[in-house]
Amino acid sequence: MAIKEWSKNSLLGIEDLSSDEILFLLDEAQSIKAQKTIDGSITESLRGKRIINLFMEPSTRTRVAFEIAAKSLGADVISIAGEASSLTKGETLKDTAMNVQALGADAIVLRHSSPGSPLFLSKIVNVPIINAGDGAHEHPSQALLDIYTMREKLGNLNGKKITILGDILFSRVARSNLWGLLKLGAEVTLAGPSTLVPKEFEKLGARVTHDPNEALQGADAVMLLRIQHERQQASHFPSLSEYANVFGLGRSTFNQMKNNAIILHPGPLNRGVEIESELADSNRAVILEQVSNGIAVRMAILQLCINCGEIRR
Amino acid sequence: MKGKALCNFDLIGGRLVDPCSGIDRVKDLFVREGIIYSSIPAGKPAEQTFNIKEHIILPGLLDLRVHNRVPGDTQSETVQSLTQAAAKGGFSSILAMPNTTPHSDNPGTIRYIQDRIKQASKIKVHLTGCLTIGSNGKALAPLGSLKEAGVVAVTDCPHSVRDNQIFTNALKYAKMFGLKIIEYPQDPSLSEDGQAHESSLSLKMGLTGNPRMAEELAVQRAITLSRHLKVPIHISSISSFGSVNLVKEAKRLGVKISTDVSAHHLLLTEEAISEYKTQAKTTPPLREEIDRLALIGGLKDGTIDSCNSSHEPYAEHLKQVEFDLAPSGAIGLETALMTVVEALGENDPFPKIAEKMSTNPHQILGLPPPSFKEGNIADFVVINPEKKWTYNTDTGMSLSSNSPLGGHKFIGKAILTVSSGKIAWCEDSILID
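Predict the joint structure of the above. Result:
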């Protein structure tokens, strides 16, 4: 049964959400996007609210997207980067967060390299915590915008074949998408080098293969993941050129997918590594639409969580 | 708590369990000036009489893996709090690991710790020294001088020497002094970034895995080197079912190795870390049910010789951080004994407890096991096997509270611990009688 109202004041991950909650959030984002498209007007539902972006790890698009989303809803946004914070002076995350709360934050958007850090913070402070990426654990806003984009292009995702190709082991995007897509009934295939795509992912409900052709055969969408850990290249795969040669998405592998198949990428894109440059610019790639949709999705997240938290407080 | 005087009391109606001496019967025990008598000694009245009907008396327990924080981190534990926690948990002796700050890799540090123990401890604390300087695996520690200073074993626990040549030479060199070698089995090249047991759970949680292979490679290395060099090695805190199989096979072939398991690995699995609970981040990591069952099986069939507490105290603020930044280790001195009792799940686990936690650990270190023979120094623990209690880390003796067993309900408790003829711990309840 579809839910009628949002009841979470924090967004820690997709694993915690029900399929109804995911759909509710996507529908909210859809109506925000529609509103923007129709007359550009947005209800400033977060006017007077103070949102702190606590980004302990470098980020451009996620941080900026959250800033734009918050400002579009009328909120005041203060962004703190790890290197400019007291954490470099030895302060713990716990103390930083308690100080941020004492400064009157109405929500904290946290990006942190430690898995589980948003859950850790949510037990310490009494304000909504929005996970903007925690280590290799989850990146819920990214997965929601990915799923939003897939749903926009492919319709209902139930039964759709979605392949995620690349560095799965270190990817929070892969994990959050896996949870979300499975909850919406999609069939998820994880693919890439055996060193970066452990078979154990099958226990979480995915199909795992190390053969990109097999992975893409008949797929409705492919999500390419950046090779994130440049420093681990030597131990996990031989070279970028070998990766491009074996696992890069080229025209011939792409042609094995369904006719209307789409290509997603959470960015930043390594042209010529994960994907042939020409394919990245083709009309099958929805990479920039993902970025734009990210604003509406993050507006929906902030609005729902902060207003829910407000009602609770 | 009682004072430091040698004790004079009668224990009436308890069951003495000491398989080493072939004793298992209800028998009164008389202690005068710390010495055991089997009948009331003439002209020496008892100061106290404890009526301990239906209680169990085991020979003094020895914990083979305890992490002492003195010198270096008295916020986490002092010698006094450490040894009180041990005594409360039923241990009359502990073996302290050498990862102090500075490391116990020199006689000066050993002597400093010995002084602190003399001032503050009511139980016996045996010391280990580092196998390599700073336990960094690069250069041999002065093992001869450490032995002279009083260490009974050498180890780099909770680390393992990475370089095979240095490890081999360390074994040969330690053998010369008859020093016991304790290996904490981890191949650091596979395990040093690991935050949790490598499994679908660690994948789900986004934590870097510490695979069973990392431990099993090191267990196999210890077995191979022990066999070739004819050096007995004690392998500490095994946690994977593969390690149990390797040790079993090696023992069958007569290789001179012994091994132990930490108590919480017998009761808990990796599920304890869900929600990123840093209290359950242990060394080695908690693994899966298949491992837990194999460890219990190994304990029962003799593959595993002993159980330790792997007591690793960390002050609260050190553990109240992000999971991957939190140090590994859990306290266990106050819960280890009853954890093992619970995990064994036997109607009468106490003969096995005496073997695994008293006789064997003493023999592994080459120390005479305590017994109830007349004329021996009193060194034992009295257990009320029916006492129900809930472990509350806030009221424990340890200064730290990083236990995965906080809130756990136990049945059975150590109520009187006597070490070297002195009462080290006495529950108020026993005094009522």
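Chain A is about 40% helix and 15% strand.
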